[in-house]
């Protein structure tokens, strides 16, 4: 007969529980962490060019690839990422860098041809990387990735428009 006192307390708990829960939750929402006069991160003033979107696609896949290229168990995934990079490079070869607007007209054709040659060289590096991954030579693939890093730095200095700070 010990259950009767517990049953008598049950209605009391049911009646009081909304008050206990209400005491745990704040009556007003917490103040915002930033003042309303300070806008959140403003969207980029400049829209990305077609070439920048292709290069971003290459860059995103490349960052993932760099992390996994040494692991032979990831070769299938690495080859898929490489395929994404190759497709974006094929699309990029027909585009013109924004920096060409700053080049004098008499030098613009050479600049654009050098850019296309640079993309073709990058495609050659991608082909070497693909061959190494397909053959399971991940040590060679790591070295090719290092070559791509160096190539990227050199080419970006020449063809990428300097960022405005």
List keywords for this structure.
mainly alpha, Four Helix Bundle (Hemerythrin (Met), subunit A), 165 residues, 5 helices, elongated
Extended strand count: 0
Taking pLDDT < 50 over at least 5 consecutive residues as the criterion, the unreliable ranges are 35-42
Q: What is the beta-strand fraction?
A: under 5%
**Which CATH C-level class of the domain at 50-97 and 109-159 is it?**
Mainly Alpha
CATH homologous superfamily assignment of the domain at 50-97 and 109-159: Cytochrome c/b562
CATH topology of the domain at 50-97 and 109-159: Four Helix Bundle (Hemerythrin (Met), subunit A)
User: What is the CA-atom radius of gyration, in angstroms?
Assistant: 29 Å
Annotation field: number of helices: 5
Mean of residue pLDDT?
80
Q: Fraction of residues in helices?
A: 55-70%
The helix-strand sequence is HHHHH
Distance between the termini: 80 Å
Under the CATH scheme, the architecture of the domain at 50-97 and 109-159 is Up-down Bundle
The SS-based structural class is mainly alpha
Task: Tell me about the largest β-sheet.
Answer: none
Inertia-based shape: elongated
Question: Brief overview, please?
Answer:
The chain is mostly helical and 165 residues long. The chain contains 5 helices and no strands.
Give a description of the structure.
The chain is an all-alpha fold and 165 residues long. The chain has a domain at 50-97 and 109-159: Four Helix Bundle (Hemerythrin (Met), subunit A) (Up-down Bundle). 67% of the residues lie in helices and 0% in strands. The chain is built from 5 helices and no strands. It has helices at residues 3-24, 50-68, 75-92, 105-134, 138-159. The longest helix is centred in the last third of the chain and has 30 residues, at 105-134. The radius of gyration is 29 Å and the shape is elongated. Residues 35-42 have low confidence and may be disordered.
């Amino acid at each position: 007969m010990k259950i009767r006192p517990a049953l008598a307390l049950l209605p009391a708990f049911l009646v009081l529980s909304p008050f206990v829960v209400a005491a745990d939750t704040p009556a007003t929402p917490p103040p915002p962490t930033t003042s309303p006069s300070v806008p959140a991160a403003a969207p980029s003033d400049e829209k990305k060019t077609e070439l920048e979107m292709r290069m971003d696609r290459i860059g995103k896949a490349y960052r993932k690839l760099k992390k996994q290229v040494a692991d032979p168990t990831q070769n299938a995934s690495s080859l898929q990422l490489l395929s994404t990079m190759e497709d974006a490079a094929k699309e990029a070869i027909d585009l013109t860098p924004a920096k060409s607007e700053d080049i004098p007209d008499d030098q613009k054709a050479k600049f654009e041809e050098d850019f296309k040659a640079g993309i073709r060289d990058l495609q050659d590096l991608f082909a070497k990387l693909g061959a190494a991954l397909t053959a399971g030579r991940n040590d060679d693939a790591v070295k090719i990735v290092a070559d791509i890093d160096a190539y990227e730095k050199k080419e970006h200095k020449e063809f990428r428009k300097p960022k405005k700070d």
